[in-house]
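Format notes (please read before filing issues)

Several people have asked whether sequences and structure tokens are stored in separate files. They are not. Every record keeps both together, in the order shown below: the sequence lines, then the token lines. Line labels are part of the format and must not be stripped during preprocessing.
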Amino acid sequence: MTDPKQPEVRPEPGAASAPHATSLSEPDAQAAVDQPEPFTELENLYAENAGLKDKLLRTLAEMENVRRRTEKEVADAKVYGVTALARDMLGFADNLARALANVPTDARAAADPQIAGFIDGMDVTARDFAQRLARHGVRKLEPQGQKFDPNLHEALFEIPDESVPTGTVLQVVEDGYSLGERCLRPARVGVSRGGPKA
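Then the structure lines:
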């Protein structure tokens, strides 16, 4: 029984009992567990930042490589873009040189003025054509007396000669040409055999 002199203490509505006053509700407790610690989150951000920086540097390096490669391809196209045309024109230069080589010097001197003028005109045309090829980077190879180079020369036959080192170019059958740093057409040559080694 209660003492009629003491008032009865009743808990206020909505107030929690003392032992449970500081506990979290169940959804709040789960959210506190799911949230990462601040240091872990910061480490993750640092790692992500490093990864993005690495990707950026790799992309910049790749772009620089592409730029350099493109510049080289453009430069090569400017120099070597005339390769097919220049190779076709070499036949014309060869035929012109052969035609002039077949006119003996004494016949040229004894020819009447019209024929001599025609021969001189062909000679001027041949020189002019060679200069035009040279302006586009086509250069005539001069292998006579040089050591045989399979990158620039094509050996057709051997010439026995003990006075010069073996593998020396002694005769040029057909002129060779280069375009820039590349061989446009190898010189067709005869090389020495039987001499001392080069």
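For reference, the curators noted about this record: Residues 17-21 have pLDDT under 50 and may be disordered. The helical segments are 26-34, 38-80, 83-101, 105-110, 113-135.
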